[in-house]
Amino acid sequence: MSSEKDDFVVFKDDPAAAALAPDEGTPAVAPTSSGLHWRVLIVDDDADVHSATEFALSGLEILERPLQFLHAYSGAEAIEVLMSEDDIAVILLDVVMETEEAGLAAISTIRTDLGLTHTQIILRTGQPGYAPELETIRRYQINDYRTKSELSRVKIYTALTASIRTYEHLKRLDHARTGVELVVKTGAEMLAASSATAALEILLLRAAELLGVPPTGSLAGTGDDEGTLSVIAAVGDWKSATGQSLNEIAVPHGSLVQSRVAQSQNEGRSLIDPDGYTIHLAAGTAQTLIAYLPNVERAPLASRQLLDVFSANVAVCAENLTLVQRLKSFAFVDSLTGLASRRAFVDTLNQRLRGKPRSCTAVALIDIDQFAETNDMFGHEYGDEVLRGIGKRLRDSLPSEVFLARLAADSFALLGTPEQLAIPALRRTLALPFVFGGEERMISVSSSLVEAAEAEENADGNDLLKDASIVIKRGKAQGLGRHTSYTRQFREEARAHSRTLHELGNAFRRDELYLAYQPQIDLQTNSVIGVEALLRWRLPDGKHIPPDRFIPIAENSGLIKPIGNWVLTTATAAIVKMLDVGYPDLHVAVNVSPTQLATEDFLNHLDRTLTSSGLNPSCIELEVTESASVLGFEHLSAQLNGFRDRGVAIAIDDFGTGYSSLSYLDRLPVDRLKIDRAFVTALTDPKQGPRIAELVVPLGRSLGMKVLAEGVETEEQAQILTAMGCHEAQGYLYARPMPLDELLEWLSQRRSR
Ligand code: C2E
Ligand code: CA
Ligand code: CA
Fold it and tell me: Distance from the CA of 87 to the CA of which of 100, 462, 559, 581 falls in 20 to 30 A?
């Protein structure tokens, strides 16, 4: 009669047993290591069951791993083993041991107290009569239930296989859950990394964490165009390998790493080997990244799916990373010349200003003269050739320590010590002919130099560049092909300039500006025809700042617009006042700068002023200088016609000092020509004489305009002018500019004379 136990011992009746029998030579599994085995705990109070089970399963592999057995002889002992050992896949559990239900009691401790939810429990009982109900199976979370009689070798193998598969699946799910979290985290961390190297190191550390191996490993990448692999990042013990080519890698298992990486590259996939993990990251098309992480402890190997999820996700990040790097390099490199960009220049300059004494730093600008014209004339390709040629000439002739950048279309910036930026030598090299399109050409350049020590104390990179470009503009205004250095004097001027502007703004807000009025006289009748409004700035201490000093500054900054509007309003109020006190035939002349004529603002303001004052528009005259021709004929003509349409008079101021508008003077709606004071002064100057006045007075007359001479200081001048046919005059001979109340006083005295 055979008991259930015999079933284990004697398998002769089991036809499938032969197929499962191990080879004679299969080595026994080392009982101490759990890593690459499935651990099975046998719990039974009968020692024979232990040996029979072990014997029945000896040498068998399940899911490509051998089994390792642990033993307990009571429920209590089973709990002890489970508390001290981990990674137990299956428990073969007897029901009746020290008590009738010792096995069942153990189950609840295992599940609830020990929290072992993945471990599979196969309940075995020798008493077929003692079969727990389905309810019991569910309640005790038993995974399988067998009577010992059922457990033939094949049957127990089948039951174990199913249990182990479930156990592995559960563990993998768990791992995958944390793995997915880790993958997501890794991506975010990589993109936030400060550099590409830092990002790749994060990749390696997280991969090690995911795979459960120590944080050591290396990442090989095809860094160059030839596609040779080198270690572009490494962590842990392997950090020193960074920068080595894969052939010379000297880390432990160097040659193994090489062959794994080579295999992964050839096969285009990740590899899982007992010695480690090779993660294939296909980052874009240009670059291959392959990470190798040694599995020194030969711990359980992570699943392929997880590795694939990791590499796919991280590869996307790595690709973004190269994209980001490329974008960064775009911003820092000028693609046409290969030189640094403006941004890179300013960054480098700022770093240098922080790190070195200012006396070590100078910035030079080289501007190609008339580059836009060259481009228009010879085409953009030719222009590009010129830029590349100059860039190359600069690079070749400058010491390698000089930082060279292309700032804008036609300007290059140089950064070095004042000695390194030797301008005369540089200009000599640039003066040599270039060969473009097979022909020799000369290129004219302007240059400027700013020594950081000369500039404002806390000037940063952008400030220095701004200084350099202001200086170069100044030089260009004097003529092309010049070099201009930033000097202390320039700096003081610039500083005074900005201080004046600041104070002018304040003065305007605080009503420290006022208008002075200078009478204009009819030379024939000696009567007053009108006044010119002239802007005055009186400081709180009573001193005056001359208009010639602050008006150009106001014009450059645009502050002249609100001030100019205020002048018109105030002058209009003055003429209304004069009308009120009995001078009906006077006009007020108001100076209007080109800046004010650039937009419609002034015209709109004129409309508002005329409407609100109800003044006859012919009482207002607008003085425009010849320099307004910079606006272009069309624009200037449109503005002046706008004034004319409103019935306002127009005078050309400082006539004769400019020349550009002479040609179209007859096509502009002009009422009066004001001959500049310089020609009036020249009248009685033996060297210069009356030539220009003799030219201008008949010109104005022939065009049907009134001709007014400015700056008349002597009777003699007045007489000469009258003899020439000049209609009117204005100057100290008659009156100085004066505030409105003085003017009214002056007018009444003159009338009563
Ligand atoms: P301007 O329009 O040519 O004004 C005539 C200048 O000659 C005034 O100088 C006046 O004081 C001065 N002047 C008049 N008679 C004589 C004289 O007999 N001898 C000498 N040596 N000078 C005489 P001011 O007031 O210093 O104005 C200088 C310039 O400032 C003006 O030249 C004008 O271009 C500008 N300006 C003055 N007020 C305004 C304004 O409200 N708006 C604008 N845009 N410019 C103004
Ligand atoms: Ca004037
Ligand atoms: Ca004038």
Answer: 100
Mean pLDDT value across residues 400-415: 90
CA distances from 59 to 157, 180, 441, 490 (A): 12, 36, 89, 94
Q: Is residue 17 part of a domain?
A: yes
Cα 591 to ligand 1 centre (Å): 9
pLDDT for the residue 15:
37
Q: Identify whether residues 350 and 323 lie together within a single domain.
A: no
Does pLDDT of 728 surpass 60? yes
Query: Is the same domain home to 138 and 18?
Result: yes
Give how many domains the chain has, as a whole number.
4
Say if CB 172 and CB 150 are below 8 A apart.
no
- Output the residue whose Cα is nearest ligand 1's atom 12: 711
What pLDDT, on the 0 to 100 scale, is given for residue 251?
66
Give the pLDDT of residue 536: 97
How would residue 23 be classed by pLDDT, with cut points 50, 70 and 90?
very low
For residue 553, the tally of other CB atoms under 10 A from its CB is: 18
Residue 609, pLDDT above cutoff 70: yes
Residue 165 contacts residue 63 (beta carbons within 8 Å) = yes
CATH number at residue 21: 3.40.50.2300
Q: How far apart are CA 12 and CA 9, in angstroms?
A: 9
Question: In terms of domains, do 565 and 615 share one?
Answer: yes
- β-pair partners for 281: 289
Residue 459 to residue 465: CA distance in whole angstroms: 10
Residue 445 forms beta bridges with which residues? 368
Please give all residues whose CB falls under 5 A of ion ligand 2, grouped by chain where several chains appear.
591, 623, 653
Residue 317 to residue 565: CA distance in whole angstroms: 59
pTM above 0.85, yes or no: no
- In angstroms, the CA 68 to CA 330 distance is 59
CATH of the domain at 375: 3.30.70.270
- Please say whether the beta carbons of 734 and 750 come within 8 A: no
Residue 730 Cα: closest atom of ligand 1: 15
Substitution candidate for ligand 1 out of 534, 652, 715, 730 with most atoms within 8 A of CB: 534
469 and 582 inside one domain:
no
Ion ligand 3 neighbours, Cβ < 5 Å: 653-654, 710
User: Which protein residues touch ligand 1 with a CB less than 6 Å away?
Assistant: 518, 534-535, 546-548, 551, 564, 567, 591-593, 653-654, 677, 710-713, 731-732, 737
Residue 553 lies in a domain: no
Residue 157: give the domain boundaries.
3-174
Alpha-helical segments (H) within 482-600 = 488-509, 547-557, 560-580, 594-597
Taking alpha carbons only, the member of 534, 716, 734, 733 closest to residue 623 is: 534
Helix (DSSP H) and strand (DSSP E) numbers for the chain: 25, 27
Which residue from 471, 367, 398, 389 is spatially nearest to 437, judged by alpha carbons? 389
Does 463 map to a domain? yes
The DSSP secondary-structure symbol of 95 reads: S
Token representation of residue 680 = 């009036």
Rg (CA), the chain: 48
Q: Could you identify the residue written with the tokens 């002034």?
A: 602
pLDDT tens per residue, range 71-108: 999 999 999 999 998 889 999 988 888 888 888 888 88
What is the CA(543)–ligand 2 centre distance, in A?
22
Residue 694 lies in a domain: yes
Which ligand is closest in space to the CA of residue 535?
1
Mutating to test ligand 1, I would choose from 520, 550, 561, 591 the residue with most ligand atoms within 8 A of its C-beta, which is: 591
- Contact status, residue 675 vs residue 693, Cβ threshold 8 Å: yes
Which pLDDT does position 156 carry in this prediction?
A: 81
Is the domain of 266 the same as that of 359? no
Element of type H or E holding 61:
strand 61-62
> pLDDT tens digits for 532-545?
999 999 999 999 99
Task: State pLDDT tens for residues 675-720.
Answer: 999 999 999 988 888 888 888 899 889 889 999 999 999 999 999 9
Which of 332, 362, 378 is the last residue in one of the domains?
332
The fraction of the chain above a pLDDT of 90, given in percent, is 39
